Amino acid sequence: MRRVTGKSGDSLIEMSPSGSDDMNGYNNHESSGTGSLQQGPPEIDKQQHSKDSVFFRDGRRRVDFVLSYVDDKDGERKQERRKVYEANLENVGLELETEDKSESEDGKTSFVKIHAPWEVLATYADVLKIKVPFKVNDIPDNKDTPMNWLSTPFRLPDHIMHPEPDYFTAPFNKSKSDFFLIDNQETFFPPSTRNRIVYYILSRCSYLKDECPDKDKKGIKRLLNNGTYTAAFPLHDSRYWTRSRDPNCESERYNLYKHWARFFCFFKEQPLDLVRKYYGEKIGIYFAWLGFYTEMLFFAAVVGTICFIYGFLTYDDNQWSKEICSEAIGGNIVMCPLCDKKCGYWKLITTCNSSWQSHLFDNVATVFFAIFMGIWVTLFLEFWKRRQARLEYEWDLVDFEEEQQQLQLRPEYETKCSKRKLNRITQEVEWILDRTTSDLMGKCLLCWLTVVLWISLIIACIIGVIAYRLAVYAAFASIMKDSPTAHLQVVGPLITPQLATSVTASCINFVIIMILNLMYEKVAIWITDMEIPKTHLEYENKLTVKMFLFQFVNYYSSCFYVAFFKGKFVGYPGNYIYMFGEWSKLRNEECDPGGCLIELTTQLVIVMTGKQVWGNIQEALVPWLRNWWGSRKARSHPESLYSRWEQDYDLQVFGQLGLFQEYLEMVIQFGFITLFVASFPLAPLLALFNNIIEVRVDSWKLTTQFRRPVAAKAHSIGAWQEILNGMAILSVVTNAFIVAFTSDMIPRLVYMYAYQPDGEMNMKGYINNSLSVFNISEFPEANSPEDGENPFWFNSSITTCRYRDYRYPPGHQKQYTHTMQFWHILAAKLAFIIIMEHVVFLVKFFVAWMIPDVPSDVRARIKRERYLVQEYLHDYEVERLKNQLSQNANDCTCAPMIYPSLPKHEVLSECL
Description:
Layout: E1 4-5, E2 13-15, E3 37-39, E4 65-70, H1 75-91, E5 95-99, E6 109-115, H2 118-127, E7 131-136, H3 158-161, E8 167-171, H4 185-188, H5 191-202, H6 220-225, E9 231-233, H7 252-261, H8 272-279, H9 281-313, H10 319-325, E10 334-335, E11 346-347, H11 352-361, H12 364-394, H13 400-407, H14 411-416, E12 419-422, E13 429-432, H15 437-480, H16 497-531, H17 536-564, E14 571-572, E15 575-576, H18 597-630, H19 644-649, H20 658-675, H21 683-705, H22 719-742, H23 745-755, H24 766-770, E16 771-775, E17 800-804, H25 820-850, H26 856-891
Parallel strand pairs: 1-5
Antiparallel strand pairs: 2-3, 4-6, 4-9, 5-6, 7-8, 10-11, 12-13, 14-15, 16-17
């Protein structure tokens, strides 16, 4: 067979494709019989062959895949590769048609259109065990819910929500094709399945002649890497803003844009069945998970907002803040310097505003919300398992794991195999890698040493940020005491050295995080490629673990420092602890008398909000600008000359790691709202607003700005499920420690119940009780403020200063050692952690035990389908045997045969 080229005037000889009489085509084209020859080019109407066309020039054969290339200085070598590769594609049954570069809008790019005929599709559907319908689902759908009318504003039309009828399905078998519900061979396999099959062939087809048995020289990925082809992609079926003018095009892209990808649809449900049909199960699972996560965030956001409102409404009951802000108490308490030399003495009343702000997040509701989020995480994960199980059944992904392992081998793995071994499970001889023990251990050691090296680099950067905080605090304290901002009416009291240090350090930390992310992504891919994983699933899981370890340290290190280390190891006046020893002169930071919780909140808000805003800008604006710039030349072309494949060629590539980055972004956000949520109850609300936008941004860019990805199957969210489970367990521990050690909740309760001098259940006198006394005359010269650093009100009559700790006063026989109250508070903190963890874990495990992973109706449907597959296959075989015996009886002259009564196969008990 000779391929059709797009250059007019060439003599074209073409063999029409084999297939059924039911062809998708234009009415003005005549169908030719199998094996017939067609002389000369067909009459092509340029206006009809417009940008909407997804068919060959004959208007009948659908374009399942497109390859593009540009001739360059190394053209002869690449041309030879293309010639051999395309000939090998034809040998396996694919049909090709070339659009010459003279027909393209840039005059340089040639396009090879690929069509998979029925014979090829049926063969590889059998190989890949693709499930197809054999019977209409006869189980009644009892989905009526009480007050169903309330969800009417959020629904989409049924033809969008459920684009296909519900069928029972079974793996396709080419030899039994009449067993399945095949109305039209050309439309039986949807475009997503067709492009998946074609890509499977492209990934394994050699670009060398048969006499060159180099296994490494095969696959479209290598041809793209060496520049033989510039792109390989399936086509979108229409423009996204209008339907296709071709009635044979489904225009599903337009439907997705109209009902899913526009921001004003943010309150509507997602058409997941249509997403799965158009993009494949892997992308469908991601949007199903993202939508479910967003729905569950609504409940966490409501409870978090209520806790925040509670803190706001109990403003007037905040006795300790009243004492700090009181001229009689806070105005008379002189505090010790917060840094050496450059910091002077200060009065407690200057922290009045931060104390009030801290109360918004540090109150009794904080404990309740930390416990609630521990239970919410469990409910989210358990209900997602049920939702995922339902999708697995509805999308024919049950028992998919074995198929993924056996049939979804990576071409990069196959080309490296040099030995054959019997698979004990399948009892088939298969290719394996010839890995020696030393080679395997050497590569594994190199990979993980690289991971450890980069994680160490992040920790070094975090230590650098901490050193920055320690170094600049003294500078801010010295500069801001006479700063004009101190006299501003509203914001003046809010701009403190602590706030300036915290905000600038958080911003620097965020910039470092973004830079390291870009660098490590390439390193992680390089390491994973070097390991040569066997399957796509294994590849993604290995890459997921490496990237998440890095991102976990990268994003959360600064929050862990503020939550669990800042203010915990500072010593006391006259015996301070320094970060790198006394020679460094970097004294460890102290917490504000209002507590470190407000600083953790600041850190969390800056990193979390900054990441989300930057991520949305990067995801939406960058692809749009690139497409706008790349297609600027084509804007002057008439529609009829700017073809569908040229439009898609100008779009951005949705790479192999496209979904990986989306999952990673959401899982990092999940960590922010679970690991540190006790410090900021509004975190779920911010995440909810972001995710409402995220769903539409992701769908918009996928539908409008990217080429159509190759459809892929996935039965779950993969390794991310285990990561989420691990973070759910860790979140209980971190929130318990935040409430105990970062918040002032436990010291206040111990004071109220055990140390209140009047025996009353209130917080009067708490501030005075929580501050220890130091004799100024005992300050070493290295810690004393320099001349001119002390405020105007400081004089020689002030002999003592206060600091945040529980130590005996000067003159006591145990002066400057911890009091018994300190040990009582420490015991109470440890007891709280143990009790909270046990309570939350018991509730988590009980909830997980109570909620089955697979809904009962889904389990019944799976059993029903397995039963019907065996029953219908039995009936099918019996009927075929009868027909065969009837034909044999007609051919012979012996007496008619009496057919035996053939019993049905017994159905296995586990299927019932």
